[in-house]
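Example record

One chain of 236 residues, shown exactly as stored in the release files.
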Amino acid sequence: MLKILKIRFLNSPNVSLNEIKNYKLKTVLKLLDLQISIKEKGSLNINLNDFGIREGISEVIVTTISLQKIPNAAPIGIIRRNNKTFCKVFKNSHTYDNIKATKLLVANIVYDPILFVQSAFTDLDSAEFKKLPDIKIPILKNANAWILFFCEYKEKSKAMIVDLNPLNAKFITPSIRAVNRGFNAVIEATIYGTRYKVFKNKKCFDWIDYYNKIVIKCGNSKDKKAMEMLYDFLKV
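Predicted structure tokens for this chain:
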């Protein structure tokens, strides 16, 4: 039975979270060599608000891993709307392939603007990842917190919609941060940079320049360095 479930788990987008739980999630994931340590009861009662994932769109850096154990990181907007938590992942990306293969991702809560830009346009160095004893999907070394999600997805023409079900979570370095327009502007500029890469719309550059002015006025040295890297990646 477990062998049959493993095949379905790897190949079917319609395996529900309840079905996986009925056959003991921990056992199934161990078959994939992605064993995680979670409690059978109560582990899904994770308050995402406590981790800053609130109603609307929250920008995080998602880490995933391939069946060949190759880690990947990419910025993703996690959407909470109408009591649902989900994200959109475009095709032709490592994140897309890895979610289809493992149905798992880790949302890293990060306040490093350089990491956001780097992970959006290039593969992070292995030194940026950190392995944990209780989950085999690496987190980012500089993450302030992380949340492990089980993914149920539906294919669309250019992307897939991924419903996110929290399995495990942890604070690493909790901190209180005032809103900084410079950091927020780096995130917005990075989003427009990734849109340009996908859609080739040169109007995105106007928005990048607009947000760069905010970074110059309000950002710190890391924010400004991140914008320099963004322009370099886009060759602007």
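Notes: The mean pLDDT is 86.
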